[in-house]
UniProtKB/TrEMBL annotation:
Protein name as annotated: Exodeoxyribonuclease III
Cofactor(s) required, per the database record: Mg(2+)
Organism encoding this protein: Hyphococcus lacteus
MF terms (GO), sorted A to Z: double-stranded DNA 3'-5' DNA exonuclease activity
Gene name of this polypeptide: xth
Classification lineage: Bacteria, Pseudomonadati, Pseudomonadota, Alphaproteobacteria, Parvularculales
Protein family according to the UniProt entry: Belongs to the DNA repair enzymes AP/ExoA family.
Stretch forming the signal peptide: none
All residue ranges annotated as the Endonuclease/exonuclease/phosphatase domain in the record: 5-258
Amino acid sequence: MKITTWNINSVRLRIEQVVKFLATEAPDVLCLQEIKCLEDNFPGKALAEAGYQHQAVSGQAGYHGVAIVSRHPLSKIEKREFCQKGDCRHIAASLPGGIRVHNFYVPAGGDEPDPVKNEKFAHKLDFLDEMTGWFSELGPRSKSILVGDLNVAPHEHDVWSHKQLLKVVSHTPIEVEKLGEVIYSHGWVDVAREIIPETEKLYSWWSYRAKDWRASNRGRRLDHIWVSPALKKAAIAGGRDAYKIHDDVRGWERPSDHAPVSLTLSL
């Protein structure tokens, strides 16, 4: 089973790119973040015509929003609200075989990494705390996949400069610590770093501000695919060839600043 996560930064604006990606990469499941539209405005027809008629959408006008589209039936669709903000930042659905997919869009956190001075950063830390509390309840046999734009680059080589970004939101020690607590709470496996050494640079996001993003390569790994312990063997069986950051998509015309990230599980 191949699953892809992609912060699309407006699905209606980039629906042609999504359809193109689906035609060339053909994942079984595509999880989108920042769809930036209500359910009624989600381009479900175009996605169904592309072969993804099974859809779960949690939409919000102009902001946030997440969706799961699939070649296979989706059941037990769940939308969880975090931090009592009313934001649409999570959706979950079950696939045949009992696999549960959680799709997240964690708050970016603003510019100032101080929860006292910056309400957005405080919200981000609270959101990660709620994730920790929730997933600590999952049993050891749960077959779960967690994907999404988690807006934290946890390791030294998940950013272009560890030293320069230690005080920049997305790579600060407190964010890394909080994300680590989420991982520990359910024994989540960060698949990318399970199969690719932490000494190797790995990015999924490049700022729009860069004149030539590929030449400067000042990226961050903000987009994640994790699996529960019960799926670890299936996730790492294919080795690094089973995991791909589609950075070529970042070079398409009017792209999202995030590249899609895919994992093929040997189920």
